[in-house]
Structures are given as C-alpha cells and as structure tokens.
Automatic annotation (TrEMBL):
<keyword id="KW-0663">Pyridoxal phosphate</keyword>
<feature type="active site" description="Proton acceptor">
    <location>
        <position position="181"/>
    </location>
</feature>
<comment type="pathway">
    <text>Bacterial outer membrane biogenesis; enterobacterial common antigen biosynthesis.</text>
</comment>
<dbReference type="InterPro" id="IPR000653">
    <property type="entry name" value="DegT/StrS_aminotransferase"/>
</dbReference>
<dbReference type="InterPro" id="IPR032894">
    <property type="entry name" value="WecE"/>
</dbReference>
<dbReference type="GO" id="GO:0019180">
    <property type="term" value="F:dTDP-4-amino-4,6-dideoxygalactose transaminase activity"/>
</dbReference>
<dbReference type="InterPro" id="IPR015421">
    <property type="entry name" value="PyrdxlP-dep_Trfase_major"/>
</dbReference>
<comment type="similarity">
    <text>Belongs to the DegT/DnrJ/EryC1 family.</text>
</comment>
<dbReference type="Pfam" id="PF01041">
    <property type="entry name" value="DegT_DnrJ_EryC1"/>
</dbReference>
<keyword id="KW-0808">Transferase</keyword>
<dbReference type="InterPro" id="IPR015424">
    <property type="entry name" value="PyrdxlP-dep_Trfase"/>
</dbReference>
<dbReference type="InterPro" id="IPR015422">
    <property type="entry name" value="PyrdxlP-dep_Trfase_small"/>
</dbReference>
<dbReference type="GO" id="GO:0009246">
    <property type="term" value="P:enterobacterial common antigen biosynthetic process"/>
</dbReference>
<feature type="modified residue" description="N6-(pyridoxal phosphate)lysine">
    <location>
        <position position="181"/>
    </location>
</feature>
<dbReference type="GO" id="GO:0030170">
    <property type="term" value="F:pyridoxal phosphate binding"/>
</dbReference>
<dbReference type="InterPro" id="IPR012749">
    <property type="entry name" value="WecE-like"/>
</dbReference>
<protein>
    <recommendedName>
        <fullName>dTDP-4-amino-4,6-dideoxygalactose transaminase</fullName>
        <ecNumber>2.6.1.59</ecNumber>
    </recommendedName>
</protein>
Length: 376
C-alpha cells in the first residue's frame, strides 16, 4: 500500500528527544522550545513565535487575544478545516463564509469587502496547499475597515508571498506541526506568530493559563499571578525536540517535497493540456512549499472512480474538506455570504495524491504510471 501521507522522519529526532529527557525539563518552554521559536523568529521574520499544542490551539489563542465576543463576525472561506471556524465560534462569533477562487482554492479577495458589516472583527485567510492568499488586498481591506487578520498558515510553513513568509503578514499567524504537515512535532503541534508587537505581552499570558509566568521565568517579576483569561497552550519540550530535528533540515525537506511536486506536475501536464484534468496554479508572486499535490477531475463521479481505481492498485488518494457551510455546525454557526459559485463545485472535483518527505522515487513512479493508465 502506498499511503497518502507518512509523518516526516529525518533521523535526528530520537537523539534530540533523548537530550530533552536528560535535560530534567520536559514541560513547555524548555531548551528545544526556545531553539525552535528563535529559529522561526529569525528565519521567517516574526516578532514573537510561541509553540503550541496544535494549530487549532493557536487559532483559539488568536480568538482570545482579539477579544472575539458573541455577536462578532469573522470572515473566512468555507473550504477549510473545522478549526478555522471553531476557534471563533467558541467565543460566540458567527463565521461568515466567502467563496474561493477556483485557481488556488483560496478565499476570493474580491468578494471579501461585500461581506464586511459593522460586526466584522477579523478576516481569516487560509493558505490552501501552502499557496498564499492575495495578502496585499486582504491587508488593505483590514486597514480600511480596522479589522484584524489572522492567517491560517497551517499548511504554509516555508511558503512566501512577495518574499514574505506566510504567517508573518497578518497581525497573527498560525502554523500546524501535525503529522500530516511538512514539519511535525512528533504527531501534533503548532505555533502562534505574533506579528503585531502590541499583542505579545497578552499572548504570553493567555498561553500560560492567564498568568504572567513567562515574565516570572525571565526574572521580570518576582512572582506570577492570575492576570487574564487564558488556557494551557504550551507544547511539551519532548515534542519540540522532535520538531527541532526537522527545522534544522527545513530546506532539505522543502526541496525534496518540491521535487516530488514537480515530478507530478511534469507527468500530468499532457493530461492537463488535453483538458482531462486541471493542475494546481501557483501565482507568480508566491513561493510554495509543496505541501500538497492535487488534481481536479471532471466532476464528483469521475473523482470517485479515480479514487477507487487507485485504491484497487493499493494507492491512497483522498479528497479534502466538505465545505463548512454545508455541514450541520456550519449551518448553525455560520452563513455563506454571496454566491457559492466555486466552493462546492471545485471541492467536489479535487483529489490529493500521496506526497510526503520520505516517499521513494519508485513509489512515486508507481502512482504516476497508475494514474496515466486510468486516463488511458
Ligand atoms: C487549514 C487548516 N487549519 C487548521 C488545521 C488544524 O491543525 P492542527 O491539526 O494542528 O490543529 C488544519 C489541519 O489540517 C488545517 O488544514
């Protein structure tokens, strides 16, 4: 069986996890957490990076930090993971879904302004497949209407938009280090990027159960106390040790994934040219991280047949999100603004192919030849 995904393993994880175990500190904010955070601050150019248990936790932190309240509205695509919406709905907000662009499957930046009301507090662009949303337009709208931007960059680690790292453009950015992502913290993990310096102090407090324990550990205060609402949003240092092994070779992982991505692209270009499938589009101002390789088939039936054909050949290819507005909770907690021109139609046609760091060339060749035989 060729799996759809396998968690990345680079070989140094055990050594670093052992080092964490012998350091005498396994909880959050240990030595490996600091190393990962500093590396990301320097590499991506964020004022403050805080490791968290998941991107879900990072999005929840963002909603707390922005004081999202009942009655507020938050704009996002419907074609996304549940956590993008849940984080804000948990604070009582309504998710306002806007259609996606068919080329990138990202929120259509030209449809956002019409969805803004006097209740809108934030825009949450999701960088699907690690390909950037049109951030200049989104940031200009945020400025014009005094809104916050929280980038859901779960899939966007190491991607850029006009040279800027994804996750560092909005006021807050959220990364995922789940095992399905390009880099993992041993299965689960995330990071909150605080790009607006005025939010840093409160972000640390919210992450530390509403206390100023981070200031206490830095020796800035002589005791720590309950200051605000908060929760436990720290990553265990054992997980940060796993992640450190991967960040050290981040570019190597990136290059290998890009190589696999381009192999697929080249192999299927003729099929795309003849109109049989559609391939992903990477806008000129975006540098992507090959988080995902998807193709679009004619319709949902064609996709079902395609997935079954690959499964018979012991290859796992999978579709993606069921648009949130069509889900029971989406109907209850959200509303689709404007016409659903592309979200449902395009998500029905999309299928993701196996692509992971440790994928072998021979396995990829098998996937490619099986797909070519399906279309033959
Ligand atoms: C767009 C998006 N946002 C958020 C998440 C949640 O990430 P995590 O599993 O780290 O909580 C995911 C995970 O797949 C995702 O794809």
């Amino acid at each position: 069986m060729i799996p759809f995904n396998a968690p990345p393993v680079v070989g140094t994880e055990l050594e670093y996890m052992q080092a964490a175990m012998s350091s005498g500190k396994l909880c959050g904010d240990g030595g490996f957490t600091r190393r990962c955070q500093q590396w990301m601050e320097q590499h991506f150019g964020s004022h403050k990076v805080l490791l968290t248990p998941s991107c879900t936790a990072s999005l929840e932190m963002a909603a707390l930090l922005l004081d999202i309240k009942p009655g507020d509205e938050v704009i996002m695509p419907s074609f996304t993971f549940v956590s993008t919406a849940n984080a804000f709905v948990l604070r009582g907000a309504k998710a306002v879904f806007v259609d996606v662009r068919p080329d990138t499957m990202n929120i259509d930046e030209t449809k956002i302004e019409a969805a803004i009301t006097d209740k809108t507090r934030a825009i949450v662009p999701v960088h699907y497949a690690g390909v950037a949303c049109e951030m200049d337009t989104i940031m200009a709208l945020a400025k014009k209407y005094n809104l916050y931007v929280v980038e859901d960059a779960a899939q966007g680690v190491m991607s850029t938009y006009k040279g800027k790292a994804l996750g560092t453009i909005g006021h807050i950015g959220c990364f995922s280090f789940h095992e399905t992502k390009n880099y993992t913290a041993g299965g689960e993990g995330g990071a909150t990027l605080i790009n607006d310096p005025s939010l840093i102090e409160r972000a640390e407090i919210i992450r530390e159960k509403g206390t100023n324990r981070s200031q206490f550990f830095r020796g800035q205060v002589d005791k720590y106390t309950w200051r605000d609402i908060g929760s436990s949003y720290l990553m265990a240092d054992l997980q940060a040790a796993y992640l450190w092994g991967q960040l050290e070779v981040a570019e190597q992982i990136n290059q290998r994934r890009l190589e696999l991505w381009h192999n697929y692209y080249q192999a299927f270009k003729t099929l795309a040219d003849s109109g049989r499938i559609e391939l992903p589009v990477i806008p000129a101002n975006c540098r992507q991280n090959a988080h995902m390789f998807y193709v679009k088939l004619k319709n949902v039936e064609d996709r079902t047949n395609f997935i079954s054909y690959l499964k018979e050949a012991e290859i796992m290819a999978v579709f993606h999100y069921i648009p949130l507005h069509a889900c029971p909770a989406g109907e209850k907690y959200g509303v689709f603004h404007g016409e659903d021109r592309y979200t449902t139609k395009e998500s029905d046609r999309l299928v993701r192919l196996p692509l992971f760091y440790n994928m072998t060339d021979i396995n990829q060749r098998t996937v490619i030849s099986t797909i070519l035989s399906y279309f033959a």
